[in-house]
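[INFO] parsing input record for Response regulator
[DEBUG] input buffer:
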Amino acid sequence: MNVLIIDDNQIDLLINQRVVKNLMPEAEIKSCISAIDALKYLEYLHINQEFEKLPDIILLDIRMPIMDGFEFLEKLNESPSLKLKIPKVLLVTSSIDPLDVQRSNEHPLVKGFIGKPLKMNALQEIINKLNF
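[DEBUG] output buffer:
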């Protein structure tokens, strides 16, 4: 399983990596400090035909500078890699804004909304629902 973690906070990236690795020791994890870096990574995989490395799951922060999580999702919809493999996106956020929850529920790629800090039981529950 390939997991892409996108968060602008280094500490949250480390926490999320550790939680994923503890829950899924076999997972290949790639972390990006920005949504732009994540899009560049996906483009790199596509250009170099490394399709086997495309993510199965994306853990995505909502509130990030320059490009937020929802803007990333819109760009992801335009990505040619999406035609090859559709990832399950889990929003991992400290946002309590009801509009963020509503937007995430309405987006077809988003399969879950998890509060920060990421906890293993919350991720496990969603992973079980997604049949991974």
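[INFO] Strands lie at 2-6, 28-32, 57-60, 88-93, 110-115.
[INFO] shutting down worker
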